[in-house]
Amino acid sequence: MSANWTDLLTRDHETTERVIDAVSKAFEAPGGPSKSVIGETVEYFVSYVDACHNRKEEDHLFPLIERLGVPRHGGPLGVMLQEHEESKALAARFASLGRRYADGDGSVLENLKATFEAYANLLKNHYWKENDILYPMARRVMGAADADAVVAGIEQVEASIGSDTHERYYALADRIIAAGRLEDLVFGLEPHVLAAMLNTLPIELSFVDAQDRVRYFSHENLPKIFGRTRGVIGMPVQQCHPEQSVDRVNAILTSFKAGRRKVAEFWMDLAGRKVHIRYVPVHDQDGNYLGCLETVQDITGIQQLTGQRRLLDEVGAV
Which of 79, 87, 107, 185 has the most CB atoms around its CB within 10 Å? Predict the structure, then answer.
C-alpha cells in the first residue's frame, strides 16, 4: 500500500466518481439500469464508500487534525462531518430502493434515479472540498509521524472488514465501470476543441502508430522546435530520422512493444535553448500497444525557476 495517505483517499474519490458516472450512464439506458448493476452499486456505496472510506476519515484523519488544531466547528472539518451524515442517509435510502429494484419492483425506478442523483451530487461536491480544501489544510498541520499514523489507520480500517478489502471493492468498482462502458473524457470534446487544446500546449506532440507510421503531430501552423510538414503523415518513422539514428529509433520502439521500457528521454542544447525530448509507449485500457508518443519541450525557462509562485499568490501580467 502507498505510504501517502492523500493518494490513498483521493484514489478512493477518483474510483467512486468513475462508478458514479458509469451508473449515471446506466440510468440513461432504455428501461433503466440492469438489476445486477444496481445490486453491485448498492454493495459498493454501502459497504465501501460509507462503511470503509468514510470510516478511514472519521476514525483516523479527522480526529488527528482536530487534535492538531483544525477546529471541528465553524470550518471545513465540521462541514465534512455533516456531509458524511447526509451521505449516510442518502446511501441508506438508495440501498432500500435499490434492493427493491433488484428484486423486480420497477415502480421505484424514478425515485431510485432521483435518490442516486442527489447522492452523486453530494459526493462529487464533498470530494472536491476534501481534495482542494481539507486535505491541503491537513497536510499543513501534520508531521511525518502524523501522516504515517493516518496510513496505518487506513490499513486498520480495511483489515477490520477483510484481508482483501481494498482489492475486492476496487474489483467491484471495475465491474460496475465496465458494465457502464464508461468512455474516456475526451469523447465529450468536439474534435476542433481537442485540436486547439493540443496546439495550445507548451509541448509539441507527435504520435507514431503500432506499425511505426507517423499519424499525428501538433502545432502544424505554429512555430516548432523541429520543423515538419503534413507530408510525413503516413510515412515510416524511420524515414523521418537521420540514417545514423535509425538503429536507436528501432531499438526504442522494439523495447516499447516488448514492454521492456517505459520511457526514453534525451536533452540537448539548440540555438541557445535547452530542449527536452521524451518518447513514451501508448497502450489502451487492456494493455495493448497502440504506438509511441514523442514530446518536445523548450525547458530553458523552467531550468531558471527559483523560489515559489503559489497558485493563490497574486500573479501579475506575464
Answer: 87
Cα–Cα distance, 225 to 203 (Å, whole number): 10
pTM of the predicted structure, to 2 decimals: 0.74
Distant-in-sequence, close-in-space partners of 291: CB < 8 Å, separation ≥ 6: 207, 208, 209, 210, 215, 281, 282
Specify the pLDDT at position 1: 46
Q: What is the CATH number of the domain that holds 298?
A: 3.30.450.20
pLDDT in tens, 282-307: 999 889 999 999 999 999 999 999 99
Residue with cell 499543513: 140
Q: With the CA atoms of 212, 218, 219 and 224 taken in that order, what torsion angle do they form, in degrees rounded to the nearest 10?
A: -40
Residue 192 lies in a domain: yes
Q: How far apart are CA 307 and CA 313, in angstroms?
A: 13
Q: Which residue range forms the structural domain that includes residue 289?
A: 188-303
| Residue 88 in domain | yes
**Residue 280: HSE in the Cβ half-sphere, 13 Å Cα cutoff:** 7
Domain tally, the chain: 2
